[in-house]
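Could you help me review a protein record that somebody else here produced? My question to you is simply how this chain folds and whether the tokens agree. Thanks in advance; the entry in question is below:
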Amino acid sequence: MHNTKPSAVVLLSGGIDSTTTLALAQRDGFAVYALTFRYGQRHEQEIEAARRIARAFQVAAHEIVEFDLRRFGGSALTADVAVPKDRTASEMGADIPVTYVPARNTIFLSFALAWAETLGAYDIFIGVNALDYSGYPDCRPEYIAAFQQLADLATRAGVEGRKRLQIHTPLIQLPKKDIIATGLSLGVDYRLTVSCYDPAEGGAACGRCDACLLRLKGFAEAGREDPIRYQGMEKAAR
């Protein structure tokens, strides 16, 4: 049978936010084309997580695009720079951390825009969040509004006055606990996800980087136990 669902490109990193965003796009009736990047990040585990999630959700297609931002460095995720550990919430919100990858979301959204145009899709989903995040400038509503304006100006559909390509950010104003609750209500299995910036070789999360601390805080506030494994904890994945 011919698929009559509208197509949407969903940025899929393998973490909680992007996975929940994917689930929301499917709930809203889109045929999901998942887009993941191997950009020289510290570990491959998030790529493997994205593959697991794409299979679990039976997406229409899953592309993994490769380029190497290690050539530029400038981030603890793409250079030999230590990942910050054990930071307080106030420290996380004080400045832009060294885990920020310069222009990453701009690069990601540009690829998503290109794929959407070739697919004839008019919707792009990205799981940015302006509340429980580590101070990244490209997660703010102002940034998304600016990229939306770029999409209006830079695409064939925008110039020809056809249907507008829309950037969707369904999680942008949700605290992590509400993101987790939303995902659970949609049947998301968070055992499939990876958030840690500095996991152990065997896959256990460090439990101490900003991403782990925000994740653990979200699960605690949602009244649920995080199902993934952490270093130094007898916490088996369930």
